[in-house]
Amino acid sequence: MRAVKTLHSLLVGACLLLASCGLSPSIVSRAAARASDEDLLDAHGNIMRIGGPARDVQMPIFAAEIKKRGLVRENRTEAISRGQVEIGMNRNEVRAAWGKPSNIDKTTTISGAKETWRYGGFAPERITFYKPLKWAYFANGLTTEIEE
After folding, report:
1. Tens digit of pLDDT for each residue in 7-60?
2. Beta bridge partners of residue 113, listed in sequence order
3. Given the DSSP bridges, would you call strands 142-147 and 134-139 parallel, antiparallel or unpaired?
4. Sign of CA dihedral 87, 84, 21, 120
5. pLDDT tens-digit map of 96-127
6. How many angstroms from the chain centroid is the CA of residue 23?
7. Angle, vertex CA 20, rays to CA 9 and CA 96, nearest 5
8. SS in 3 state form for 2-64?
9. Residues 6+ away with beta carbon under 8 Å from 18
10. Residues 6+ apart with CB under 8 A from 6
11. CA nearest neighbour of 72 among 93, 91, 87
12. In 3D, which of 143, 136, 140 has the Cα closest to residue 120?
């Protein structure tokens, strides 16, 4: 079942990315409406990073769907629209700005759960289109440190 869900997620993500690269806005709107929250956030962040004509023309469709679902806080939308991550952002907001991380390390300490999200570099499970390495550090679900 997990393999089917992973395959479905990959297919939806690919459809979102391909749809945003030149197809009509109505096709992009339908794909965005059908995507899971995670796939929608990843597609938004990936297009932010990759750029191109679709970024300016069709990003409002992704942003509107993200807003409609309440996936990011209103005070973070401006930074996300610039592809920037800020201290205090939650996981959804970082995904919307930078896309899916190439690696997530989780640590549990006496003071709580911590995560390190790495972007870029070598990801053996998939081909990456990432720029040089970036890191987002989380404690209790919010970014505490950013390295670019």
Report:
1. 455 555 555 555 445 567 788 888 899 999 999 998 888 877 777 776 776 788
2. 108
3. antiparallel
4. negative
5. 999 999 899 999 989 889 999 998 765 555 55
6. 21
7. 60
8. HHHHHHHHHHHHHHHHHHCCCCCHHHHHHHHHHCCHHHHHHHHHHHHHHCCHHHHHHHHHHHH
9. none
10. none
11. 93
12. 136
What order of strands is seen across the sheet that includes strand 112-119?
Answer: 103-109, 112-119, 134-139, 142-147
Distance, CA of 40 to CA of 43 (rounded, Å): 5
Residue 9 burial (C-beta neighbours within 10 Å; 0-12, 13-18, 19+): middle
Do residues 63 and 43 make contact, with C-beta atoms less than 8 angstroms apart? no
The pTM assigned to this predicted structure is 0.77
Residue 65 identity (one-letter amino acid): E
